[in-house]
Known about the structure:
Blueprint: E1 2-8, E2 24-27, H1 32-36, H2 38-44, H3 48-67, H4 72-88, H5 90-100, E3 104-111, H6 114-127
Helix pairs in contact: 3-4
Amino acid sequence: MSVYTVHEPPLRAAETSPDPERYVFVRDGFSVWAFLLTPLWMLWQRLWLVLLIYVVVTAGLEAGLNAIGVGAGLRFLVALLISLLVGIEASTLRRFTLARRGFRQVGVVGGSNTEAAERRFFDALAKAEPGQSGRPRHSPLVPPRLPPMPQSPDIVGLFPQPGAWR
């Protein structure tokens, strides 16, 4: 079972709630395509800023390694490690780009594939109790934030407040 983060798109003009077709589900985990075809994967996913950073860092590392006379084998290993890092962090890079575009993460859902995760999320969203605006108060799959615990100067534990033992 895969885990997906759910991202709600920003509202367009004259929209009261976002179109369900525009929600984005990002699978968490290693991306083989991001590892094997790093720049093409970035273009396919429209990660322009990430691609720009990747090109600058890769070109800088290549120039630096070339300037100090490192062999082709080590340069290949560095490029392979950068691609491995991109493959590992592919979902994080997508979430970063979605956040920059105004998308808001509204839930986490599991499913055997994207379609099952979508079905599960939208079923739970339809069953959620609507707030005053007609939209759910919070995502049915992410609990609401709890209020912060009050701080007491008399706390005894692993990390007591300074001066509590006087």
